[in-house]
Amino acid sequence: MADAQARPDPAPPDAGLHQVAWLMDRSAESAMLTDAAGRIEYVNPAFEAMTGYGRTEAIGRTPALLKSGLQAPEVYAALWRTLHAGQEFRGLLVNRRKNGELFHEEKSIRPLFGPDGRITHFLSCGRDVSAQVAALARLERAATHDALTELPNRALFDERLGAAIRRVRDGGAGFAVALIDVDRFKQINDSHGHAAGDSVLQAVARRLLQAVRKSDTVARLGGDEFAMLLEGNCSADDAAPVLDAIVGAFAPAVMHGEERVFTSVSIGACIDLTGDLEPRQLLERADAAMYQVKRDGGSGYRIHAEDPVTASAPLGAEVSPDDAGGPLPGPDRPLWRRRTLKAGECLYRNGQRLTHLYVLRRGTARAFVPAADGGGAVQRHGEGDWLGLDGLATRRHHREARMLVDGEVWVIAYDDLLEAARRSPAFMAQLMEAFGRALEGRPG
C-alpha cells in the first residue's frame, strides 16, 4: 500500500511534451516535434543552428521546408508507412538549409502515443553527417577513379565492360571497346620532364571526353594507356568517325606552362554485336589492333576484324634489300613497309587525317578529287607514283585513293618521311619532284 502511495500519478500529455522539450533544448542533436498531421510545434536550438531556420520561422510549417528535391519519393513513402505502423524510422536524408546548401542528416523519427493509444505527435532527432558522407565518397571514388585524370580506373572500366556484355546477351545494343596509347610518351617525359608528361595525360583525358557522349566511358588503365567503351548500337561505321576525330584532336599541341608539347595517339578497337566474347578476349583484340597501329608509326586507329579506312593502314613486314625488287624511293629502307591491296580497297578518304604516304610498287590506283557540285576529277596512278601528297599542306587529304586492281604499295609514316628528307638531300629532291607533279595535276 505504501508503495502504491509512493508511485507518482501519470503526468498529463502536455506535461510530458513540456518535459521532452526541456530535454531537447539541451540536446546537441537537432530535434523537431510535430503534431499527428505533420505541422511543426517545436524545434530546438540545435535545429536552428543546423538548418538556418529560426523557431518562429519553422513552427506551423511542415518538415517539407527542408526538402532538397534530391531524395527519391520512395524514401518518404517508406518513412510514413513505418511511422503510421507505429514504428520508428531511421535513415539518411539529403536536406537543404535555409541558405540553399545541401546537407546529409542521419535521422530518427518516432511516433508518440496518447492515453488512447493513438498517435498524437512525431518526434525527430538528427545530426549533420555531411563531412562523414563526403569522406566516404572520396574513399569510394579513390577506389574507382584515377587521381591524376579523374577518369574511371581499370576496376570500374572492367565492371562497365562486363555490364555492357551482359546487356548485349540479353538482347541489347552492341558496343565498341577501344584501347588508346599515347605515342612516344617516354620521349615526352625524357625531353620535357614528368610534369609535362602529367599535363599530356590530363590533356588526353579531356580530349577523349570531348569526343564521346556522356553515356560512354573513358578510363585510364595505367601509365599512358587509356580505354573507351562506346555503347548504344555502336557498329564499325559508327565507331570510325569517333576514332578518327580523336586522332585528329591531337593535332594541336598540349600546353605545359609556356611550353608546347606535341603528341598523338594510337587506337585499337573491337566491336561486339553478339556478346559472344569475354572481356579478356575483347581487350586482347583491341590491344592487337592498337599495337598494329603502333608498328605502323602511330597516330591512327584500327578496328579488329574489320578493314575500314583508318588513319593508320594495316601494313606488312618491314622491307629488306633482298626482297625490294628494285630501288626504293628513299635512303632508309627500314622506314618503309609493304602493303598488299585488293582491287577496290581504299587507302584514304577525303577529309581523313594524313599519317602515311604511299608509292605504288605494283598495280594501278584512282585518286578522285570531289567537287562542290557533286562531280569531281579522277586521276589514274601507276607503278612508281606517289599517293597522299595532297595532304601535305593541311595534314588532311582532299582526295580519295582507291585501288583499281590488286596491287602493292610502299608505305612510310609522315614523320619518318620528314626525318629522312631532312637527312638526305637526294631524297628531299625526289620528294619535291613528286610534290611538284601533284600540284600540276599529274599523277604523284
What can you see in these coordinates?
- The protein is α+β, with helices and mostly antiparallel strands and 444 residues long.
- The chain has 3 domains: 2-134, PAS domain (Beta-Lactamase), CATH 3.30.450; 145-312, 2-Layer Sandwich (Alpha-Beta Plaits), CATH 3.30.70.270; 316-444, Jelly Rolls.
- It is 34% helix and 27% strand.
Topology record:
Blueprint: H1 2-6, H2 13-25, E1 30-35, E2 40-43, H3 45-51, H4 55-58, H5 73-84, E3 89-96, E4 102-113, E5 119-128, H6 130-144, H7 154-169, E6 175-182, H8 185-192, H9 194-211, E7 217-222, E8 225-230, H10 236-248, E9 254-256, E10 259-261, E11 265-272, H11 279-295, E12 300-303, E13 336-341, E14 346-348, E15 356-362, E16 365-370, E17 376-381, E18 386-387, E19 400-403, E20 407-413, H12 414-423, H13 425-439
Helix pairs in contact: 8-9, 12-13
Short descriptors:
single chain, Beta-Lactamase, Alpha-Beta Plaits, Jelly Rolls, 3 domains, five-stranded antiparallel beta sheet, five-stranded mixed beta sheet, disordered N terminus
In short:
The protein contains 13 helices and 20 strands. It has 444 residues and is an alpha+beta fold. The strands form five sheets. Strands 2-1-5-4-3 form a five-stranded antiparallel sheet, sandwiched between helices.
Low-confidence segments, ≥5 residues, pLDDT <50?
Answer: 1-13, 306-333
CATH homologous superfamily label of the largest domain: Reverse transcriptase/Diguanylate cyclase domain
How would you describe the oligomerization state of the chains in this entry?
single chain
Number of domains: 3
Compute the separation of the termini in Å.
120 Å
Strand percentage: 25-35%
Q: Which strands sit side by side, in order, in the main sheet?
A: 2-1-5-4-3
Largest sheet: 5 strands, antiparallel
Q: Structural class from helices and strands?
A: alpha+beta
Quickly give the CATH architecture of the largest domain: 2-Layer Sandwich
Record field, number of beta strands: 20
Shape: elongated
**Mean pLDDT over the residues:** 81
Rg computed from alpha carbons, rounded to a whole number of angstroms: 35 Å
Number of DSSP helices? 13
For this structure, the CATH topology of the largest domain is Alpha-Beta Plaits
| CATH class category label of the largest domain | Alpha Beta
What is the helix fraction of residues, given as a range? 25-40%
